[in-house]
Design brief:
Length: 151
């Protein structure tokens, strides 16, 4: 049980690290300040998640464990991994490289919040957020299944 919990924690921290890198890099290549703000927010959420996880492990306090799980599932997995990585990068790249109509792409991914794929590193780090979120979700499900069978 503990092994899957730690894997879940680490994978969500990797997501927050990747999104920090991704958005700081994006703020440099596409000079839009909101991208840097997202990176700073990722650092803050990652720190909060880390503190809650450590508190839960150290004191076995239920509230910190519940808050850790809520924050980790909502922000890194759902918001960053599945929305930012899945929608903003995986889906966008699939549609773009499969030749979707430019009007459809612009409607689904309106500028300036979205950029059409033109930078390999930016798109790869964006897609990697999704891959890490899928891994985190698998670890979370395994953790909860093992906790249910153990207790």
């Amino acid at each position: 049980m503990m092994k899957e919990q730690k894997r879940f924690f680490l994978s969500t921290m990797y997501i927050m690290g990747m999104t920090t890198l991704h958005h700081f890099y994006g703020a440099v290549i596409y000079p839009q300040i909101f991208r840097a703000y997202v990176a700073l927010g990722a650092i803050a959420i990652g720190f909060l998640e880390y503190m809650l996880y450590r508190l839960h492990l150290k004191k076995k306090e239920k509230l910190s464990g519940v808050l850790f799980q809520l924050i980790a599932c909502i922000v890194p997995v759902l918001m960053i991994g599945f929305y930012e990585g899945g929608y903003n990068h995986v889906l966008k790249n699939i549609l773009f490289f499969s030749g979707a109509d430019r009007n459809v792409l612009t409607k689904l991914f309106p500028p300036p919040e979205y950029e059409m794929p033109d930078n390999f590193l930016f798109e790869c780090t964006g897609i990697l957020q999704f891959v890490l979120a899928v891994m985190a979700l698998i670890f979370f499900i395994r953790w909860k299944r093992s906790a249910r069978t153990a207790g």
